[in-house]
Amino acid sequence: MNYLTDDKIVILGAAGAIGSNMMQSALTMGLSSNVCGYDPFANGMEGAAEEMYHCAFPGASITWTDDIAEALQGAKYIVSSGGAPRKEGMTREDLLKGNAEIAAQLGKDIKANCPDLKLAVVIFNPADITGLTVLVHSGLDPSKVTTLAALDSTRLQTKLSQHFGVLQSDVTGCRTYGGHGEKMAVFASSTKVAGTPLRELIGSDKLSEDDWQGIRAHVNQGGKRIITLRGRSSFQSPSHQSLMMVRSAISGEEYPWPVGTYVNTDGFDHIMMAMETTLDENGVSYKMPEGSDAEIAELRASYEHLCTLRDEVIEMGILPPLSEWNVG
User: Fold this and answer.
1) Which of 1, 7, 27, 232 could form a disulfide with 57 if both were Cys (CB 3.0 to 4.6 A apart)?
2) For residue 21, is it left (φ>0), alpha (ψ between -120 and 50) or beta?
3) Residue 140 and residue 108 in contact, taking contact as beta carbons nearer than 8 Å
4) pLDDT band with cut points at 50, 70 and 90 for residue 93
């Protein structure tokens, strides 16, 4: 089997549904011949590794451990799903304190064991804050730490394709920015449905204003709906999109969806949030999204919400005061 690289990919939280699925997918996609799974639940981690061995991936070196230092030693790519899961009735923000503490320790472990990391993808919620916390404590360049933000945009694409009865791939330019949560900013300006700008369809007999607001609400609650329907949080979509991000970092093929990235410009300061991004072998870079005045105002409101959460984590002592940050 041909692999894109032999660099070490580490999946954190690999005994769980998301993590074990990522281990298998990383090998199935041929991302690397060198995949390591980590989980503090040793029996579950060994069981997940045994499943990988039984798949009999040709040429693969599959390792596992419940020792974080051993897992991270020599790592070049990390995907971390290793926080507490979101359960029915919970918001992403309900996970703030416990998962921020996990993120802080992860950042310190990265700094101690793999300072030459090429990319970290943080997906445990609230991802904007956990990703930010990992970055601040890791000492990595901001281009090397990202969060999964694509699912809000793919949920917008999904719902529009279902409404108009077209292939999902025929809905292009779907973008949500800001926080990965109920305060996200849903943009319509860049979206087209079978070549027709979405802005021309909103308010028409094909998509009433009420229907558009319903779609926006559906996107905002997309993760919650999965929990209600399946009894647990998403694992297939975050697994796939996270590894597509890693694939872009390895291959240089540009990732097509927004990425959560560290932002410190244009009045959006000291925060991790989804922007219009480029993710390739150089890591992630960003620019300001283009949109209507109302959309930019919504983006700023999402940013302000994230700042509130960030400041709560600072008050908890998990993040240092902004004046002490040494990022970028």
Assistant:
1) 27
2) alpha
3) no
4) low
